[in-house]
Design a protein that fits this description.
Strand order of the largest sheet: 1-2-4-3-5-16-6-15
Order of helices and strands: HHEEEHEHEEEEEHEEEHEEHEHEH
Distance between the termini: 33 Å
Shape: elongated
Length: 384
């Protein structure tokens, strides 16, 4: 196989779209990626299938005069969404769909890799096909397992996320924070149940939960700089079994989003203090669980990102768009906290949002994305 053609890329994307798999279960996807890669010219390639993270795949392209290793990451997992696109190549796996467009991510990465398998780069390139982005913190797992050490060391990392609100093939980016970081929140309140007619003999966990939920609304409005952005959403409340019994316990589940790690840590701290206050005020027990799970803010490296944006603005055939920060989460943020780099958007132009059952990316974005990224990597390798 030479450099992948547009027709071959289209076929690959549609095949990947039909076999979506959930986090850490991407076995069929892994096998398909490996088969495509093994058909490429192997002169400069070294393939690694780490036993520590079995569905991950790393491909090192050896540079001719390597002074650094540039990493490129593509996530490979899907979402528990039942597809409703009606496409002839719709998901064959019931209840699972590439509703976040990771099939596009993988196809673009394969296109870039196929180019450099035929045109040896000067620097080393490391392609990381990452499992478990949507859940299970695949990026953090990979780093903590030491996948980027020794021969597989990465000096700087790049990765894309598709964006249905941008024109097909457009590149979007910004310096600073691109995606928010997240903390998943679980709060269990334990009171004392009893008959609805005798509230004085009980300790109502629902009333305590209601007070907590209302107090939480002040954390953003009274602790975060108004020109910054943070979010607390408590989206699930479970309590009680019947209307005439005072509930002895409640469970609240939600999420925190912030544009910097320090902001998230502040919100986490204030939430813990509110929970302590509810304990004292209502005489209940409040158990708070906060799980960041590797989904840190995607904070682009200033110098590398300035260079990336400079290239994209002047490159022939590239439509560059300066974008605002997004409150969506992305586990590439953890990797960027350890290794300098840049995440950017690739426009896929669709009326349906990410994570929806009807997401239908414009496939013309694939070849345009490959051209932009290949051009940037070649440009980057000419710099000291």
């Amino acid at each position: 196989m030479a450099v992948l053609t547009k027709a071959e890329l289209l076929q690959i994307r549609r095949q990947l779209h039909q076999i979506p798999e959930l986090a850490l279960k991407e076995y069929q996807t892994h096998a398909y990626l490996l088969d495509v890669i093994k058909q490429m010219k192997q002169d400069y390639l070294e393939i690694r299938e780490p036993a520590e993270l079995s569905t991950a795949l790393l491909v090192l392209v050896k540079g001719s005069k390597a002074k650094r290793t540039i990493g490129y990451r593509a996530d490979i997992d899907a979402l528990p969404v039942t597809e409703a696109t009606g496409l002839p190549y719709a998901s064959k796996h019931q209840g699972v769909m590439h509703a976040c467009g990771h099939d596009i991510h993988m196809t673009v990465a394969l296109g870039v890799l196929s180019y450099f398998s035929e045109h040896q780069p000067t620097d080393n390139l490391l392609f990381f096909f990452q499992p478990a982005e949507e859940s299970e913190s695949g990026g953090m797992k990979a780093y903590q397992l030491g996948l980027f050490t020794g021969k597989w060391h990465v000096d700087e990392f790049y990765g894309l996320h598709d964006n249905p609100s941008l024109p097909a093939g457009a590149i979007g980016c910004r310096n600073g924070t691109l995606f928010a970081g997240t903390t998943e929140v679980n709060i269990d309140i334990q009171g004392k149940g009893g008959h609805a007619a005798f509230p004085q003999l009980s300790n109502d966990a629902v009333v305590a939960a209601a007070a907590l939920i209302m107090q939480v609304q002040t954390i953003i409005s009274r602790n975060i700089d108004p020109v910054q952005s943070g979010v607390i959403t408590l989206g699930k409340l479970t309590a009680g079994k019947i209307r005439n019994v005072i509930a002895d316990s409640t469970r609240i589940e939600g999420t925190i989003r912030g544009l910097t790690q320090s902001m998230i840590e502040l919100i986490d701290k204030r939430l813990a203090e509110v929970c302590q206050g509810i304990e004292l005020s209502f005489g209940v027990k409040v158990k708070l669980e906060l799980n960041q799970g590797g989904y840190w803010p995607v904070e682009n490296n200033p110098e590398l990102t300035e260079n990336f944006i400079k290239y994209m603005k002047q490159a022939d055939g590239v439509e560059y768009v300066e974008t605002a920060p997004a409150m969506t989460g992305e586990d590439f943020g953890y990797l960027l906290a350890q290794i300098p780099g840049t995440m950017f958007w690739l426009g896929i132009e669709d009326d349906s949002p990410l994570h929806s059952a009807t997401l239908t990316p414009q496939e013309s974005s694939i070849s345009r994305g490959i051209a932009a990224i290949t051009g940037f990597l070649e440009y980057r390798m000419t710099e000291d």
